[in-house]
Every structure is written in structure tokens, then in C-alpha cells.
Design goal:
Layout lengths: L3 H4 L12 E8 L2 E8 L9 E5 L9 H12 L3 E5 L21 H12 L6 E6 L1 H13 L6 E7 L5 H8 L5 H21 L15 H12 L5 H8 L12 E4 L15 H4 L4 E4 L21 H12 L2
Parallel strand pairs: 3-4, 3-5, 5-6, 6-7, 7-8
Antiparallel strand pairs: 1-2, 2-4
């Protein structure tokens, strides 16, 4: 389930969609690149902001898949790149991390005040799912343009998720993420010489070591455990005041399902949890049926957004 959707043939061209690039200013030193697909009358249409997961980007297959469906459903769509992702290392001196929900609060605010958009949805996958839930909980009732949020396999408790990712059974996923994080840091270091001490980088064998040495300190946290504890959306999820959909799988290899059975989530009046027994991590592949394609989670998200537009 986790791997098949990455390699299953599908049309990912998006050639029928209008497209423009836009830089969102987060602070004087940081800009985030969004790929925007605007409806003909953008102010009359609802807007979906899409946020990818760890080591993804705006071009990830799931980002392009959900973008095409949301646009056909009448939404403006913005495929965001997190800090340093999608070839944007030069747009910020910082690394990206699971706690940077302020980036997406700033984007919602800009779209509301500058573009006068009034029905904005945040949609995130994995790490991006944590970010959008965290942003929604922090916004609470202060940004009326936020209409709702949807998250697929969000790592709302990074401590639990990092421990699960480092289990021997997940060596394939763990190695994939760690190798790519190291490569990204080397590219960043070439752009910002002397900012990070790369001595010993090759000897790091766990993602928690990488986060303790680099991600945490770069993000202003004391250490890795402090970062994992404070970055999770679990701290603010109870403050969400807009409709929220969480899609997770009971067999996700490194997002423990037990996180979503807590009373704070199960009894929350605004949160709907869909948790099929099988789905892997952001996979949810099904054989086509009832006129739907195999990408079950994408279809449920669009169904959720359309039902509340």
C-alpha cells in the first residue's frame, strides 16, 4: 500500500490546468514557492493549499494527483513546497521541520488579505498533515478565511513516529529518508557555507540523530527530544474550530494508529477520522470501482471538501 501508488501508471501531466509560480514571503529571509492553479474567477472559488510530506515537494505524485482532482471540483489549488524543498534551498537560510506551522498561517493570511480569498482549505500529507493540523489549531477563530483542514497520515506526535520509523522492520523507509536528508543538508551547506558543521554527518545512522544534531538546533529547539515534543499537532488539535478530516491507516508502518484513538480526537465535534484497516503510509490504493480511480484517499479528501464548500 505504501509503495504501489508511487509506481502505478497514471497521468501526472496537469497540462490542462492553468499554472503560475508564486513566492510567499514568510519573513525577510524566507520565501516559500507555491505552484498555483487558479480558477477563471479565483475570488469566487474556494482554495485548497496542499502541503507535502518529509522529503516530498510540489511535484510529488500525490500532490499532483490531488491537485488535478481538486481543480476539477472547482477549487483554486496551490501546491506548496516546504522550506528548502522542490529546489528552493536558496529561498531560505533554514532547514524545514515539523513545527513550522507559522509558515502556513502566514500563507492563509496573505491569501485572505491580499487576494481576498475567503474559503481556504489546508490539506497535508504525513509531515505536511501535522503542519496543517497544527496551523488550524493555532489559528482557532482568529482567521475567518480558514474553512477547514484535511490531513493524511499526519505525524501528530513526532516522538512516537520517529521511534516507529527506526524499528528494524522499517529500515527501507528509514534509509530512504535519512539518505535524502543528508544530501539536502550538503546542498544547503554549499549555499550557506559555515552555517552547519558537517563533520560526522556520514556517521549518523538514525533520523533521530540527524534531527538532534541539525533539525532541532536549526529550528530553535534545545535538542531532538524537545523538537519532537513541541512540534506535534497533538498539543493544539483540541483547539481546532473548523471542519477537519484525518485519514490514517491502521497498518501505517510508522504513524501509530493509537494516536488517533485518544478521546481528545474521537470526541472532538469538528474532527472526522477515517481509518481503514489497510492503507499503508499515504497509500490507500484500491482497485477501481464505482467510477473511482484507485487513489482512495484523494477521492475522500475531494468528497470532504466539496461537501463543505
Amino acid at each position: 500500500m505504501t509503495l504501489v501508488p508511487r509506481y502505478w501508471p497514471r497521468d501526472m501531466s496537469l497540462t490542462a490546468l492553468p499554472q503560475e509560480s508564486r513566492l510567499f514571503s514568510i519573513d525577510p529571509a524566507t520565501q516559500l514557492l507555491g505552484i498555483c492553479h487558479w480558477q477563471q474567477n479565483r475570488t469566487a472559488a474556494p482554495t485548497a493549499i496542499l502541503v507535502h510530506g518529509l522529503e516530498g515537494c510540489s511535484e510529488s505524485p500525490y500532490m499532483r494527483g490531488i491537485a488535478a482532482k481538486a481543480y476539477r471540483a472547482g477549487f483554486n489549488v496551490i501546491r506548496m513546497n516546504q522550506r528548502t524543498c522542490g529546489g528552493t534551498e536558496q529561498f531560505t537560510p533554514t532547514l524545514y521541520n515539523s513545527g513550522l506551522s507559522g509558515d502556513y498561517r502566514a500563507i492563509v493570511r496573505e491569501l485572505a488579505t491580499v487576494d481576498h480569498l475567503d474559503r481556504i482549505w489546508l490539506v497535508g500529507y504525513s509531515m505536511g498533515g501535522n503542519l496543517v493540523l497544527k496551523a488550524a489549531g493555532e489559528i482557532s477563530r482568529t482567521e475567518l478565511a480558514l474553512a477547514g483542514v484535511a490531513a493524511v497520515c499526519p505525524n501528530i506526535d513526532p516522538t512516537q513516529c520517529a521511534h516507529a520509523l527506526e524499528e528494524p522492520r522499517n529500515w527501507l523507509y528509514h534509509r530512504h529518508f535519512l539518505v535524502r536528508l543528508k544530501a539536502r543538508l550538503r546542498r544547503k551547506s554549499a549555499l550557506f557555507p559555515g552555517k552547519w558543521d558537517l563533520s560526522g554527518l556520514d556517521r549518523i545512522s538514525r533520523i533521530s540523530e540527524f534531527d538532534d544534531r541539525y533539525t532541532a538546533h536549526d529550528g530553535g529547539y534545545r535538542n531532538g527530544p524537545d523538537y519532537y515534543n513541541r512540534a506535534g499537532a497533538r498539543h493544539v488539535i483540541g483547539s481546532i474550530t473548523v471542519p477537519a478530516l484525518i485519514i490514517t491507516a491502521q497498518d501505517d508502518p510508522f504513524i501509530p494508529y493509537s494516536m488517533f484513538t485518544a478521546p481528545l480526537i474521537e470526541n472532538h465535534p469538528q474532527i472526522q477520522v477515517m481509518a481503514p484497516r489497510y492503507g499503508g503510509h499515504c497509500g490507500f490504493f484500491q482497485w477501481s470501482r464505482n467510477g473511482e480511480d484507485p487513489y482512495w484517499a484523494e477521492n475522500r479528501i475531494v468528497e470532504f471538501l466539496r461537501g463543505r464548500r
